[in-house]
Amino acid sequence: MRRFLTTFALVILAGFLTLLPLRAEELWKTLPAPQALPPASDSGDVPINGITVHYAIWGDGSPLILLHGGLGNMEYFGGQIPELAKQYRVIAMDSRGHGQSTRNADPYSYGLMAKDVIGLMDHLKIDKASIVGWSDGGIIGLDIAMNYPDRLDRLFAFGANTNVAGLKPNIDKDPTFSKYIENAGKDYERLSKTPKDYNDFVGAISQMWATQPDYKPEQLAKITAPVAIADGEHDEAIRQEHDVEMAKAIPGAKLVILPNVSHFAMLQDPKLFNQAVLEFLK
Question: Does the keyword Hydrolase apply (predicted)?
Fold first, then answer.
């Protein structure tokens, strides 16, 4: 009987060990909830470019601005802020129409949202900052790198694209991305000052996504700040060939592909994401 139990236990253990690599490999298929934001040292709502921008600040040191992705909000950096704030003065903001920031009738564009970031920097009296941008936030960072070069120190652009050809088809059909869109609707209702306007908001920003960004190689070639073009190995939205194209087009850019994660790497493996960011920033 004891021999049978020992053999049975070994079989169970072997089966468990066999499952471990599979679970690691499939981390990129998960969508963990964002970690809770720590208490901010400062926060507020600032009138900028005809809207109200919501922001929060943590830590001390050189300024580091976090820009979230489309349909998201600053809460998606809950797994990053405690670690980054140990070394930097971290400023997170909700893009126009996202989170607790408002929007107006102005058509969405990455140039307009980049102007919002500069407006917040002016309000906070920040002459120059590094930026960590995820998805749309990375694109906004690239726009700043091209059009406001004297305001940018370094840029870590994760899951960004420079033209619509860099996107994979049928992104919204991917189950992980579909779940993100569903969660974003709930977040919008919880955070927005216009909680019933989610469909109108999505319609407005979708008009931008249909044609933007559309940055030309000659524009990217003028970027002077150090840039990391980063992505997850299994990004549901961005073609990895496009990551390579972007890194080649930007002088001196570093290409960073994080293993076993997707477009939502900062949620799936915060430690890995944070290590990549801090390694680049230093």
Answer: yes
Reading the block at residue 22, the tokens are 């599979």
Which residue type occupies 280? F
Q: Do 184 and 71 touch, CB atoms closer than 8 A? A: yes
CATH architecture of 45-281: 3-Layer(aba) Sandwich (3.40)
pLDDT along the chain (282 residues), means of 10: 35 37 73 98 98 98 98 98 98 98 98 98 98 98 98 98 97 94 98 97 98 98 98 98 98 98 98 98 94
Amino acid in position 8: F
The pTM of the full predicted model, rounded to 2 decimals, is 0.91
Count CA atoms closer than 13 A to 42's CA, side-chain side. Answer: 8
